Amino acid sequence: MNTLVMGWRRARDSELAWQLRRSPEAMVAAALLLVYAVMALAAPWIAPQNPFDPAALELLDARLPPVWLEGGQWRYLLGTDGQGRDLVSVMLYGLRISLLVGLASTAVAMALGVALGLLAGYSGGRLDALIMRAADVQLSFPAILVALLIDGLSRTVLPQALYEQLSLPIVVMAIALANWVQYARTVRGLTLVEKDKDHVNAARLIGMGRGLILWRHVLPNVLSPVLVIATLSIGLAILTEATLSFLGLGVPASSPSLGTLIRIGNEVLFSGEWWITLMPGLLLVGLVLGVNLFGDWLRDVLNPRLK
After folding, report:
1. How far apart are CA 240 and CA 200, in angstroms?
2. Distance between CA atoms of residues 18 and 149, nearest Å
3. Record's InterPro entries (predicted)?
């Protein structure tokens, strides 16, 4: 317990926490992200309805408007979708999926990009040229196009039933493989600088292996810009998943993300059921805005040129 208390006090009194308290925008962004995280994690307990339980759905309640419009009901505060699902509940569960895809794909892209960047920058030669030329080729294609290609190939190769089961991991990998390049290029440039420093040369002289040198002496010194890129990339990954789902290629409609909900609402938008699209859209905008504001603040704090 004392260790936890001391750790909390060190974190509270750290320079990063002090900088956070000085920035109202960062405080608002952090509070917004905390609210989103709590909503996503507590969705099974705070959602008025389980949208994945067919027994809880009422088709007669389909497309009910929000409570402040004529025909709205208090048990459906933001209305219902075309299947009679409570929009608040389905948005909470959709938020979980969008956050999961965003965080998981960013973590995979960061791990892959950092590993390849370290290897390319430290090894040099043909391996460096091969990795960087592959990165250059991928940069000539938009990230969403790469994700669409990977997802489309998975649909073609895998049986339909198996694809439905693996749709979430496939979307995560598709987005990760579309976004690893920026990590690799950044880490490679920093590794080229770090590998010629005295402490790295000293570790090499005493016989330390390449992997240990990269892990102990190079990686810690390149993490700051990587963390900034990762923070900003979470919002991009969430938007990419929403775009894939809007195009009907993301997670299945049985486990809808925010992008899937926007697509479902768009199909009936001109019929007057605007809330099915607008409410998930506003939730998605708030999420990405909070991530981007926090990422901008983190970039400014960790940039030594601004200190």
Report:
1. 39
2. 44
3. BP-dependent_transpt_permease, MetI-like, MetI-like_sf, OppC_N
Residues 6+ apart with CB under 8 A from 149: none
pTM listed for this prediction? 0.86
Residue 139 backbone dihedrals phi, psi, to 5 degrees: -65, -20
Pick from 62, 47, 91, 55: nearest CA to 256: 91
- CA proximity to 185, closest of 146, 138, 147: 138
The 8-class DSSP code of residue 247 comes to T
C-beta of residue 222 within 8 angstroms of C-beta of residue 190: yes
Q: What is the CATH number of the domain that holds 85?
A: 1.10.3720.10
User: Which residue in 302, 273, 255, 192 sits closest to 43, CA to CA?
Assistant: 255
User: Is residue 77 classed exposed, middle or buried when 0-12, 13-18 and 19+ CB atoms within 10 A define those classes?
Assistant: middle
Q: Output the six-digit token pair for 246.
A: 């809007």
Total tally of structural domains belonging to the chain? 1
For residue range 174-229, list pLDDT tens digits in order.
889 888 899 999 999 888 888 878 777 787 778 777 778 888 888 888 888 888 88
| Residue 11 covered by a domain | no
Residues 246, 133: Cα–Cα separation, whole Å:
32
Please give the residue range of the domain that contains residue 43: 28-48+58-306
Secondary structure (DSSP) of 103-123 = HHHHHHHHHHHHHHHHHHHHH
DSSP letters for 36-94: HHHHHHTHHHH-SS-TT-GGG--GGGTTPPPTTSTT--TTSTT-B-TT--BHHHHHHHH
